[in-house]
Design a protein that fits this description.
single chain, 154 residues, alpha+beta, Aminopeptidase, seven-stranded mixed beta sheet, 7 strands, 31% strand, globular, Acyl_CoA_acyltransferase, acyltransferase activity, transferring groups other than amino-acyl groups
């Protein structure tokens, strides 16, 4: 069963609740916190960061951040469309939220004219690699800053 999700702008009114979201213990090495992600977005404008809170009903349950339509040739930036962060709060994992978010993101980037979405992950048991592969991402053979780069093409 896929959980219905909405992607919502982060505002002063929901920032604290979204920043309070946490992955399960032991998963912290695979995905940065929301606060760190927002800091990375602010300090890496060349990555064209686009981010949203993930809501199920009226409750924030996750966070997603992409590099959105990055012009070619920017050093150190994968793109043009790159799934930079995907975090589902530990209390809400296993309900189809991550899959629903990815489905929504793919729909949005396709509508913007993209032909592929890239992401990367740190290798390791309990990491997100199997989740991304099950969704249809395939390894590109590239390693970026120690992370395995994956591609979803359509």
């Amino acid at each position: 069963m896929t959980a219905p999700v909405r992607l919502v702008e982060i505002t002063d009114g929901n920032r604290d609740a979204v920043c309070a979201l946490r992955v399960r213990p032991g998963q912290e090495r695979f995905v940065a916190s929301v606060a760190k992600s927002l800091e990375d977005a602010a300090t890496t404008p060349e990555g064209e960061p686009w981010f949203r809170a993930v809501y199920a009903g009226d409750e924030p349950v996750g966070f997603v951040m992409l590099s959105w339509d990055v012009p070619p040739g920017r050093p150190g930036i994968l793109g043009p469309y790159y799934l930079w962060r995907l975090l589902v709060d530990g209390r809400h994992q296993g309900r189809g939220i991550g899959r629903a978010v990815l489905t929504e993101v793919v729909s949005l980037v396709r509508a913007d004219g993209a032909t592929e979405l890239l992401t990367s992950h740190e290798p390791g048991d309990d990491g997100p690699g199997a989740f991304y592969r099950k969704f249809g991402f395939t390894p590109t053979g590239e390693i970026d800053d120690g992370e395995t780069v994956l591609r979803l093409a359509w």
